[in-house]
Design a protein that fits this description.
The protein is an alpha+beta fold. About 30% of the residues lie in helices and about 20% in strands. The chain is globular, with a radius of gyration of 18 Å. The protein has 2 domains: about 140 residues, NADH Oxidase (3-Layer(aba) Sandwich); about 110 residues, 3-Layer(aba) Sandwich (NADH Oxidase).
Length: about 270
Amino acid sequence: MENLTETIKGRKSVRTFDGNPLSEQHKSAILRFATEISNPFDIPVEFEILDAESNNLSSPVLSGERNYAVGKVQKKPYADVAFGYSFEQLVLYAATLGIGTVWIGGTMKRELFESAAGLKDGEMMPCISPLGYPATKRSIKESMMRKGVGADSRLSGEKLFFDGAWGQNLLPDAELKEVLELVRWAPSAVNKQPWRIILKDGIFHFYEKKDKGFVNENVGDMQKVDLGIALCHFVLGYEEKGRQAKVSICDPGLEIPSDAQYLASVEIF
């Protein structure tokens, strides 16, 4: 993906759209890109673009949207992480086309979306996103929502990224600093930013800093979806610099808080 850094830093969640449907050119481009999306866990995510009007789809936090992107994944370990990783690639690609998006996991009539997407037993659809062209001005409702969750602010790197042990300050070199900034600005449910990274013996270990109320057996762990997004930013950030990233699941057994959980490790070459 070209200009990844600019895309990530320039993208804002959009909830107010101009009322026009996606052009056929943009719809085709997104669906074509979706066929090329993969994730390090080799768990396929199936994408579809739905028409809002014909499927009676809406969300109380949106206005003017005419299309939605949905993704389906088989329920299995790491499915929610894989979903976040894959769906974020679609979101970032849409941004390069000037198409607005916002991650939505709860403020919708989920049964209508699942029916329209043809969700089968054994599948889950953690999140959806509108796809459309941003209105020239945000609605008052959207502006209030952004202010309420602090959408334009992020935790400092000192609270997210550690050297050797949980809570120990990491002083990154220039390359790592740029990549971690992409992780820091990853979107997350109500801007909780639940990712934590410990750099230990040259390997980056990702952890979920868990909050209550984000797990549902039918739709997965929303904060693990967030971890997938952060992991996506980390890997793509290094790949943009010509490096290779190897993702593995190999818990180093480091001491972590009781409300944290190991997720995955990344080695950079």
